[in-house]
Amino acid sequence: MRSPSRVLPAFALALGLAAGTTSPSGASDAAPWHPTATATTARSSVAYENVLDLEGVPKGASPGEFNPVNVFADRGAWHAYALPEADDPTTYGGFTGPLYIAQEYPWWLSRSFSRLRLKEADRTLDLAGGGAPRFTSLPGLLRQRYRLDGLDLTLELRFATDRTALVRARVHNSGRTTRTLAADWSGGLLRPDKGPQRDAPALTATARGVAVDFARVREKWDYLTDGTERFRITHREPVRTTLDHDTYRTELAAPLRLAPGAARTLDWAESYTFTAPEEAREGAAVRRALSRPAAVAAAGDARWRRYVAAVTDSVPPARRRLAVKALQTLVTNWRSAAGRIRHDAISPSLSYKWFAGGIWAWDTWKQAVGTARFDPRLAESQLRAMFDHQIRPGSASRPQDAGMIPDAVFYNDPSDGGGNWNERNSKPPLAAWAVREVYERGGDRGFLREMYPKLAAYQAWWYRNRDHDGDGLAEYGATVDPANDSAEERRLAAAWESGMDNAPRFDAALGTSVVANQDASGRVTGYSLTQESVDLNAYLAADQTHLAAIAREVGDKAGERHWRARARATHQAVRERMYDPKSGWFHDTDLADGSRLTGRGRGIEGAIPLWTGTATPAQAAAVRDKLTDPGEFATPVPFPTVARSSPYFAPQRYWRGPVWLDQAYFAEAGLRRYGHTAEARALTDRLLTHATGLTGRGPVMENYDPLTGAPLNSPNFSWSAAALLPMLSGR
Fold it and tell me: N or C: less crowded end of the chain, CB within 10 Å?
């Protein structure tokens, strides 16, 4: 790969940074669009092209429950794109999509809504005529390159804002004669198969391109629009557009005239907005971006260079591509503020119908820790997005739950007709850990002061509403909520609160049930499982330790003493009451008599006391022995959620055996904390090598089969990506 004027360093080429050429007017329009790598980034020779396979075209408007086409988004956009299929010339000249989120659910608007065509003397130039094109994904952009008859065409897509993708087509005359070209764009809608979703999108011609207006559709479990959403194409150059039912054609008003060696660029913006005020604001942003597209792109390139440098720092060269894949996964799942989500956050996966338009509590805690490694301010925003919905004292609907963080929040709450919002349970309390980790990366003491009382209120809620017998060990449970209308529904909600939904330790058949919790007046305030869970109490102890450190940072000396005392007591209770010397493992305990529930087998939650620093050295050594035993947790892909020796081990059943990377991180980091570094490194290397797709171009998955490494459940999963970053760096 060689530019007209110089060869760039390998790292610059890998990031898509190419030297500019001068336009016929003499203005260097292309150079800022491809800024040269700095000395810091150029020191690496690692290429980050195509760390994830982003080629593909949808078969219909519905992506299905699991979208088979990996996509790219940035800046929190609610629409995303992919590259064309190399073996399908009908897809050439445009970027696949967009995939847009109808408030909570992903849908394909088009196979390729804006495909560029070049014509010369009424002859359409064949984009496949000069040999196979090159389709490339790079950190922060998608690129297509075509060699035509004496012409080079490059298309690049980046995101300019949280609502707009900026596309640039660069046409370079590499021949010896002047060329005069006409340009046009065409595309069409992919309509859903059924109504009213089928009738939602409609094409409209505009002065500078084309738009899609969406009708109001309130299909709770499938498609949600308010009739104010709009997708708009805006061209920098004058154009004229004609419509034909569900297709359109936009023609460049004036031809391109290219002298030998000259280049011209065509720029357009593709925006997706939810409300009329949002569209008006975005219209101004688009005009600014199209007035200086090179500068916008240069700023984006610089941001991505910072991101890449941050996540690859301290990572061995052989693992850096995986670190960049994790980075791209998190950024593509970044959703900016919209609807009831008031701050930028990261959804679990844009590739799974039920995860695309919402955010979850303990996902957020873990994702923020990963995100803080490359963008601490975005990490702060994620945490705020969840705490925006912390139940306040005096709540009209659930005053007994003051301090609680809901399990999941979405674009719509129940009053808007949303069905996915969930306040029937919370999620494990890792919030103080997340806040402290983000602070360590970003250094914003004001953020600590803001979050400190909220974290304290969350801790207080756990002990007020989830410590049935008041013994200092809490239980997972359920809220007083219309959905929790039976003992079985309450048990299910309590299992969900653990985050390990169907783990064997929560089976009703093994004796798990719920009891009601009451305040001093006898009013029911919630429900607890009939067991005290080891992971929950280790997490609480860790968060109390982090709260003590936060109190010190914000100058609350009394608070620091209080939280240190609480942490000591909780660590001690877990150590003394939840560790079973005979089995060498930590277990949940029976709420009635305190006995350890060893008959339910060993689960990965028993390794959490190593990560939290709760275990004694001898206890940690015993846990290490199980983690390194092939008959227990050292499976071909290590750290299954249930030990291989357990009668309940099921390698492909969600929390009954598959390997989840967050739990793997907790286990290997726990080993390192107690000095078992060689074992941690060996197990981690085995996991990273044998989990299918991690070392290739496959997506980061929700979980993996511990025996075969087969990918399971949701692709492009955020907390897996977030957990990979500390695992790869070893810190």
Answer: C
Q: Sheet containing 105-108: which strands, arranged edge to edge? A: 79-82, 96-102, 105-108
Return the structure tokens found at 62: 């519905």
Distance of CA 222 to the CA centre of its chain: 21
- DSSP-derived secondary structure for 572-589: HHHHHHSEETTTTEE--E
The burial of 664, by beta-carbon neighbours within 10 Å (0-12 exposed, 13-18 middle, 19 or more buried), is given as buried
CA distances from 331 to 316, 348, 378, 691, 719 (A): 22, 11, 10, 22, 12
Give me the pLDDT at residue 130, please: 82
Q: List the structure tokens of 518.
A: 């009451």
Tell how strand 263-273 and strand 105-108 pair up.
unpaired
* Active-site amino acid positions: 501, 702
Q: How far, in Å, CA of 317 to CA of 324, rounded?
A: 12
Q: Detail the DSSP E strand segments found in 67-149.
A: 79-82, 96-102, 105-108, 115-120, 123-124, 134-138, 141-147
Q: Which of 163, 169, 126 is nearest to 147 (CA)?
A: 126
Give the mean pLDDT of the chain.
Answer: 93
From the list 494, 469, 460, 468, the residue with the least C-alpha distance to 480 is 494
Q: What is the mean pLDDT of residues 55-71?
A: 97
3-state DSSP of 48-87 = CCCCCCCECCCCCCCCCCECCCCCECCCCCCEEEEECCCC
- Structural contact between residues 524 and 480, judged by C-beta atoms closer than 8 angstroms: yes
Closest-CA residue to 111 (of 162, 52, 56, 64): 56
End-to-end CA, the chain: 36
How many residues belong to the chain? 731
Per-residue pLDDT at 202 exceeds 70: yes
As a whole number of angstroms, the distance between CA 82 and CA 143 comes to 10
Closest CA to 430 of 438, 440, 442: 438
For 28-41, b/e burial (b = at least 16 CB within 10 A) is ebbbbbbbbbeeeb
The dihedral sign for the CA sequence 356, 357, 361, 366: positive
How many CA atoms, within 13 angstroms, populate the side-chain half-sphere of residue 521?
Answer: 4
pLDDT in tens, 232-269: 999 999 999 999 999 999 999 999 999 999 999 999 99
What is the β-pairing status of strands 358-360 and 345-346?
unpaired
- Going along 488-580, which residue ranges are E strands? 514-518, 524-529, 531-532, 579-580
Q: Kindly report, residue by residue over 569-618, the tens digit of the pLDDT.
A: 999 999 999 999 999 999 999 999 999 999 999 999 999 999 999 999 99
Instruction: Identify the sign of the CA torsion 401, 404, 405, 408.
Output: negative
Instruction: Answer for the pair 712, 655: CB distance below 8 angstroms, yes or no.
Output: no
